[in-house]
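Appendix B. One record, verbatim.
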Amino acid sequence: MGKLATNCYLFISGPELAIIDPGDEADKILTRVEKTKAKVKYIINTHSHFDHILASDELKERTGAAVLIHEEEKKLVNFKVDRFLEEKDKIKIGSAVLEIVHTPGHTPGGICLLGKKVIFTGDTIFKNGYGRTDLTGGSFEKLKDSLKKLAGLLKPGMTVYPGHGEPFKINK
């Protein structure tokens, strides 16, 4: 969504959903939410770059959902956050659970959201690459460590939902 083609995801489980990385176009997101008939429980930001958070405030105002982001992004956000996340925190949406995997490198508080057969990776990894580290707070050394951590978590058949580009399946 938006000019930088950021992926925004609706993670739906039963009567609840989470909006992940609402980069822009709140009206468009809410139109899709209405079609699901599910209630927005959370707005989850994988990191604080503007192309992943621009619609967070408006969506919070219009849905009453809690806004979540990693604690290491605290100094970088200029909107109200309801809960700062940490490694291994669990977010319950309907009957599903997403576990927080702290993946610094692209930003200090970058996270991935790990489910049973899915992972939302923000700008940590993409189908053919990984996030840049040349922006404020970026660190190539930390990103390398994060990629090693993810290599141990990604399992064959798992679907990866990146912050930009197409989702893809892990084959090996």
